[in-house]
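Bench log. Compound arrived from synthesis this morning; before running ITC I wanted a structural hypothesis for how D-glutamic acid sits in the protein. Inputs:
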Amino acid sequence: MADPASPILLFDSGVGGLTVYDALRDVLPQAPVIYAADLAGLPYGTKTEAQVAARVAGLLGRMTERYQPRLACIACNTASTIALGMVRDVLEIPVVGTVPAIKPAVLASKSGVIGLLGTQATIRQPYVDQLEAEFVAGKTLLRHAAPGLVEEAEKKLRGQAVDRTVLRAALADLAASGNGAAMDAVVLGCTHFPLLKDELQHIATFDLGWSPDVRFLDGAAGIAGRISHLLEGQSFARKGLNRFVVTGPIARAAGLEPALAARGFGPAEAF
Ligand code: DGL
């Protein structure tokens, strides 16, 4: 049985994994959490598979040694679709991944045309091909890389204005591919993207004239449920605030203070 003070480690390249954290806090409010943002490696989506795999496996190994978590969650679709298997092989604790919520989107779609927004690296992964083969047979999955949304989400959490033209272009380009006009479910296949969900929904309906019934889906609640299921019966004793650690210069976390405080984190710390 895990030490009650042992944390859950949530890992992402940046602030995107906070969407998973928010969902986790709803189901396990008492659990101690260490959130690790690899700001020195951000963004992952433009890196090669080898670069992402080496970085994620190396960092999670060192972080697990240092923080002794009871469970690690790779709260990043790019890192999970590339390196989940490898990380599971090297860590001795349960590792939960984050993969695009294609299955729930297929269930939610009436038209059978589903959009997927992710990073460049995520949308080309064989893991996504497998999800498509398993759940989208006879239907259509339109994939579009929207790396600009990662930067906009990082800006938003630092209190900076979001560039709506970047969001609009991502949605318009997705809809312009294949039979996009029939699309009625869009998977936000990067943990950063749900941070922009309100803006995306608004732009889709009011700027692009999409039906207000088009659903934007992400996997955060499902991942939180999976973590809570794996930790069922364990006790939790948080001493103080949750911790937010970053790789690289701490100055890159500047501006995040209100977003962190609102979520129950202490000030950013260097890893
Ligand atoms: N949050 C990450 C994801 O879910 C990726 C952002 C990045 O490109 O680093 O894919």
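What the model suggests: The two ends are 27 Å apart (CA to CA). Residues 49-67 form the longest helix (19 residues).
ITC booked for Thursday regardless.
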